[in-house]
Design goal:
189 residues; mainly alpha; 75% helix; TetR_C_Firmicutes
Amino acid sequence: MDKASAKTLIRTTVIELMETTDIPDITVTAVCKRSNLSRTTFYRYYPSVDAVVKEMGDDLLASIRRTQEVDRRTTSLGGMRKTGASDLIRAQILFEYGPFIRVVTGVHGDPSFAYKAVAVIRERLQEEVRGLGLNERDQEVFIEFMLAGLFRCINYWLAEHPEITPEEAYECQLAVTRALAEMFGALKP
């Protein structure tokens, strides 16, 4: 078995085990037994189950950061960026990592992953919110509101409606963005 196939099998097996078992309780033996791989093969690629989970989380966050770099290059000055191609790419990344996101943020997952993910998203939101003309406190409240909504929406999509494609999720995002713009536009004095 080639390296890519072996790593994919190990990662998939760890995700399956995370559905019912806390990460510290998942053993290399359990992963090997379920995946029909030898311990030697496992250890060729990973020193521990924790390393598998960490690598998946790091890969996901790195992918999100890359889309944020696209956002930075395409944002016009003086306001939040417009919804665009990077949002579809981000939806595709979330969909691809959906099984991992669902279990790592679930009851058997890793609470520290959520903190890392929040930090990545918060950084980008802070950049976008600066151009809205809000005072510092209102910026903080707005960012927390957006973070809570984003994470709840992603979890809802991946856990409750995994059949929704990234393209459909992107179209939904566009519709919600338009509705919010209309709602907030109507609230202006």
